[in-house]
Amino acid sequence: MFAVLGFVGMLALVTGLIHLYLWKRLVRDTLRPGRGRRIGGFLVLALALLVPATMIGTQSGAYWLAWPGYVWLALMFYLLLLLLVLELPMLLVRRLSAARRGPAEPAPARVDGSAAEPALVGSGGPAEPVAEAGDGRGRDGDVPVGPAGGPVGTPAAGLATPGHDPGRRLLLARGAAIFAGLTAAGITGYGIRTAFAPPRLDRVRIPLAKLPRSMDGLRIATVSDIHLGPLAGRAHTERIVSLINSLDADLVAVVGDLVDGSVAELGPAAEPLRGLRSRYGSFFVTGNHEYYSGVEEWVAEVDRLGLRVLQNARQEIRARGGVLDLAGVNDVSGTGTGVAAGPDFEATLGGRDPSRPVVLLAHQPIQVHEAARYGVDLQLSGHTHGGQVVPFNYVVALQQPAVAGRARFGDTELYVTTGAGFWGPPVRVGVPPQVSLVELKSA
After folding, report:
1. Listing from the earlier edge strand, what are the strands of the sheet with 200-208?
2. C-alpha to C-alpha distance for 296 and 339, rounded to whole angstroms
3. Could you state, in order of their start, the residue ranges of all structural domains in the chain?
4. What burial letters (b/e) apply to 391-419, b meaning 16+ CB within 10 Å?
5. How confident is the model at residue 168 (pLDDT cuts 50, 70, 90)?
6. Please, which pLDDT band fits residue 124 given cuts at 50, 70 and 90?
7. Which InterPro entries match (predicted)?
8. How many percent of the chain have pLDDT more than 90?
9. d(C-alpha 440, C-alpha 173), whole Å
10. 185-206 pLDDT, tens per residue?
11. pTM: predicted TM-score of the whole model, two decimal places
């Protein structure tokens, strides 16, 4: 819970700064002072408060906040990204526009060398002297009046500061805001549609040097990051189970982040997992979100639903006349929580027969470095969501050794599935939901 609150606090600070920028670009720069600008300011403030309110509220059961809050979070991100991208071209346009207008012409000098008076309304030049009384142009003590009816000595109305055109600047700001708004809305809508679409199947064949020839073609249906929660319920689970069962797999591996909530809240949504079918069993390892959601209760619940939970343990799989070790380690989030142990590779893999191939289930790809030290042949992971929304895949790559698909670390193969659900915004851009079928090949 403290980890979640800390994350929410940091998120509130960052989103506050983001909304300040959005107010400047979408409200202050596009609206003249007045009622409209004030309304826009209050709206941006409300949206800024909505983000942390959603993060805290959904943890407390206020699920009605999920749709507006999480959708705005995605829209906010793409608005920010697009407006930042537009900063440079907008700056160039302003500079070019100012260059075309050129610098202001210097005022002509008097004969005595002093600067001439500025042009006045209606005069076209220096101020005209006050007319004699009775000529209809003014009286002693009155303000001199120019031919156009304006007071003599008043600077010309609408005279702009050199290099500055308020009308042009306003038009440019409004154009950028409209473009960013429409584009961000389009991307977010596309992402929502993708996130709620049926998972795509990724088929991959991975050779293992130690795999007996009799076990060639052994298939493991792999899914991660289902993320049952306020926006993904029982129907989401049923669809995933139906797809997995259609694969006729030998093993099923659920590699963490099943839920975002307690057993009391999401137990019915997870119930369809009881229907998973495979020849040699279904297995589960914890992800980081299980530690935010009551890991001990969920381990018991998943076990009740018929999945074997591998908590720093391994299972001997005898199939087709061969033997394979299927192992699982707890997520690194369990370290130091006082709730459940973190990953223990020695307890999981120590003392095993090194002639057997071993497939390790580990939620986070970063655990592959330790897995390679213990001679793991293949690690199956999730966690990354493939970035979930482009360009977050580049950020994830700074934290994990692989974002999606296959990678190799020494003699250890790593395969990262991009997840069947979503976390936070119900949006996937460039990374559709996925279920993977991993087929093992003898080398």
Report:
1. 200-208, 434-442, 219-223, 251-255, 282-285, 308-309
2. 8
3. 2-100+164-193, 199-442
4. ebbeebeeebbbbbeebebeebbbbbbbb
5. confident
6. very low
7. Calcineurin-like_PHP, Metallo-depent_PP-like, Metallophosphoesterase_sf
8. 72
9. 56
10. 999 999 999 999 999 999 999 9
11. 0.82
